[in-house]
Design a protein that fits this description.
single chain, about 300 residues, mainly alpha, 12 helices, about 55% helix
């Protein structure tokens, strides 16, 4: 089987939900003359999620489920209480996603994969499906510790699908703010709009999937401000993104150009592993460097 019965059941429920919500958002935004959707960007989102899903299914049973199964067979903790088991799996998997997401933003090698998710200048429910195509190649590494502490690989994969559903639903401009108690603990659409912004103040902020507590604990939280309207997309828009290959590989091409510059071997490595925007000569800057320049 390519997926567990539990995942099949969840897919049968979530797919009509997505269709209903996306259809409603498209109709409502057109009726209100809000430019939340365009055919070109929506088709790009569909294309990227199909490529990602195909790669994920190919690697799942051919490779990474086997790695997680081997890790689980060597687990050194056993959680007997079923309620505690699922609660801890949710918390720990959400934390694992936060770590992965933060590395995706702070290491250019992984940003080259993740950047496709941020490259759209639109923000709507289909943006949640705008997948980081090659993420299945390495995402499972962050789940190995979960298997080692006694979580079954199929449960890990199911929990990721479950939490990812929530992560998709926060891609909307129709919910301004959630109640304060909610936004203290959980990621809200407002939090995630900040995450997709190209404003310097908002760059590399709010990286949680379901829980915003990790961002608040580790200094990556930023509230959406009324006096700083969100501008979606990248600080440098992708040229020629109508090309389906370019939209996936454009940052790899940019990185290759930087690595080929006449500079030291160490600097060339830094162009791969330092945060996006790092340069040896100051011709481009990281988000942190740009924020420092903003301060009086």
């Amino acid at each position: 089987m390519m997926q567990s019965a539990r995942e099949t059941w969840f897919l049968l429920i979530s797919t009509p939900l997505y269709a209903l919500l996306i259809g409603t958002e498209i109709l409502l935004s057109n009726w209100q003359h809000r430019k939340y959707y365009s055919l070109k960007e929506t088709l790009q989102n569909v294309y990227l999620t199909l490529v990602n899903a195909g790669l994920d299914m190919l690697l799942r049973w051919a490779f990474y489920i086997s790695v997680l199964r081997w890790s689980y067979n060597h687990h050194f903790v056993k959680i007997e209480n079923v309620y505690l088991y699922w609660f801890l799996l949710f918390i720990l998997e959400d934390f694992a996603f936060y770590i992965e997401h933060r590395i995706d933003h702070y290491c250019r090698l992984f940003w080259a994969v993740h950047v496709t998710h941020h490259s759209s200048e639109e923000f709507n429910l289909t943006t949640g499906f705008r997948s980081s195509v090659f993420q299945p190649v390495y995402r499972f590494i962050y789940f190995v510790p979960l298997a080692l502490v006694g979580f079954d690989p199929l449960d890990i994969v199911f929990m990721y699908s479950f939490t990812q559903t929530y992560g998709i639903l926060v891609h909307t401009q129709y919910i301004h703010k959630m109640p304060r108690w909610f936004e203290t603990v959980f990621v809200s659409p407002s939090h995630h709009r900040v995450h997709h912004a190209s404003n310097v103040l908002y760059l590399d902020k709010n990286m949680g999937m379901c829980l915003i507590i990790w961002d608040k604990l580790f200094g990556s939280f930023q509230e959406e401000l009324d006096n700083e309207p969100v501008r979606y997309g990248l600080t440098k828009p992708v040229t020629g993104k109508e090309n389906p290959v370019k939209i996936i590989f454009h940052e790899w091409q940019n990185m290759a150009k930087d690595v080929s510059k006449k500079t030291s071997f160490v600097n060339r490595l830094k162009y791969v592993f330092m945060p996006p925007g790092w340069s040896h000569d100051g011709t481009s800057k990281t988000a942190r460097e740009m924020r420092k320049e903003m301060k009086p």
